[in-house]
Structures
1.
Amino acid sequence: MRCPFCGFEESRVIDSRPTDENERIRRRRECIKCGKRFTTYETIEDVPIIVIKKDKSRILSHEVRELMSRLRQRSSSRGAFFSFPRGE
């Protein structure tokens, strides 16, 4: 993170906590070069998951859950087992 005072590119995080809405993270930082402190707010980007199939068609993230359940069914019938993260 670039220091707004001297422009140095490195800083250390002093304090980190979520905001009241839990949509952003507030971080207190200190510049390694000049020692001044500043606050940054970081947001998490929601990037949609897009699966491109063999026939070049695309499925969006809300359809991925259905696709993963189908993969589990088909793989278990063939003796292979896959585990997917629960944050689907």
2.
Amino acid sequence: MNKFSIRELCKSGKLLLHGRTSEIINPNRAGDDVPDGAMPLFYTGSALEFNVSGTMLNVTFYSDYDCYEQWISVYVNDSFIQRLMLPKGVYTVSCFRNMSPEKIKNVRLIKEVQAMSDDKSSMLLGVSAECDGKFEKVEPRKIKLEFIGDSITSGEGTVGAKSEEDWISMFFGASFSYSYMLADKLNADYQVVSQSGWGLLCGYDANPYHSLTEHYTKVCSLLTSDRQRALGSCNEYDFSKFITDYVIINLGTNDYSAFNAEKWTGESGETFELKMKGGEFDKNDASLWVSAADRFIRIIRNNNSHAHIFWVCGMLGNGILPLVDRAITEYKAATGDERIELIEVPETNDETVGSRFHPGIKEHELAANILYDRICELRR
């Protein structure tokens, strides 16, 4: 049997770790029971990918949470094999058994659940892998995608019956989302930065501390407990580790909700609101949002110099679209940067809805196909 830590396999090129990660800063602060050689998987869609020979493969994880448990899916040779909830602590997943030993099997174990910002114990780490054959090199794919979004990009609602309304880990499905689908169609590597309920300028309830843009240049700084920081969540992210070809933004749905929400009041008495007047955006608040969008586009461009940027609207309504269109138009006029565009996707309906009133698999397929067709046009 051949058994190696995830860190050893990463360094040897015999494992491709998808998604933002980091070296653990302080193993002792992360937890006495966190095994040596482990690597954290932060955002949804993060994954461990192997090429292995032999008859079997076991992969060991370390998982913790207070409320929102971790889920993973296992794919063998691009085919869905299993999906499971991980218990707390160290747990070994049997990926396959009794397969032909001489054949190379491509195996991906995908984190299906987003980084849970409200769960201060939430963490998932790849610990080790064991096979009775050999671990072979895993070559990165030529195309690189990055997705930035909210619950839609987190895959919320892609799992479960349409009648389900509980906000729980079980109803998140990264590998059933448009991000996974588009990467699969393009044979691309991808990573995700997303959080349910958060937005560009604020969250759905107008909470200004739920702006995802403030966390983009960090590894995963919406995870803030001491243990999570010890994993490197608040480190500066090294963009040279993943040179993107296409950045897909899908933010604004929650900001539009905020325009129609009550004024947010924090524990200290501070307030924030985005106002609508007579069904129209308040002029000053609209300008505030557009300025925030312009700033975020510039941050993305500064860190992804040759990427083509798409801003997707419409999967849960296009109320924010006029402001997105204005932000892109003004940014292009000010900079001369033409490598950014708006992509409109038809709204989720009774046929395409999933659980929790969110886009289902059919809607995600539609979005993936629209983006795929446009990217193919650009690559001709």
